[in-house]
Amino acid sequence: MIPPLGVIATGAEILFDLLLLVGWHTSATALLRGLLLLSFGVAMTLALGVKAPLNFAVFTGVGGALLLANCEGFPLSVDELLFRRSIQRRTDESSTGLRFG
C-alpha cells in the first residue's frame, strides 16, 4: 500500500505546485498544499523526530501555504484574469442592456 500512496502524494505535490505557479484556484490550492505539507511534516516527525522536518523547513512551508490561502487577491494569476473578464462582461451587459447566456 505504501508505493501507491507515495505515487499519489508525489502526483498531488506536482499538481499543486503547477496550479500555484499558474494561479488557478489559488486559495483552495494553497490550502490543500498546506494540508499535504502538514501531513508530510507530521509523518516525518513521527518517523524521524522533530529535528528532521525542522531541518527541511517543512513547517515553514505549511505556514507559507496557509498564509497564501488567506490572501484576498492574486494580481498575477489566472484567477485575477478571469475575475477581470467577468467584471468587464457585466459592465458591457449593463451598459448595452443585453444579456448573453
Structure overview:
With 101 residues, the protein is mainly α. The chain has five helices and no strands. The protein has helices at residues 2-22, 26-48, 51-55, 58-69, 78-96. Helix 1 (2-22) packs antiparallel against helix 2 (26-48). It is elongated.
Beta-strand percentage? under 5%
Strand tally is 0
Helix proportion: over 70%
- The average pLDDT is 88
Question: What structural class do the secondary elements suggest?
Answer: mainly alpha
- What is the makeup of the main sheet? none
DSSP helical segment count: 5
N-to-C SSE series? HHHHH
Low-confidence stretches: none
Short descriptors:
79% helix; elongated; 101 residues; mainly alpha
Quick rundown:
By secondary structure, this protein is an all-alpha fold.
Protein topology:
Elements: H1 2-22, H2 26-48, H3 51-55, H4 58-69, H5 78-96
Helix pairs in contact: 1-2, 2-4
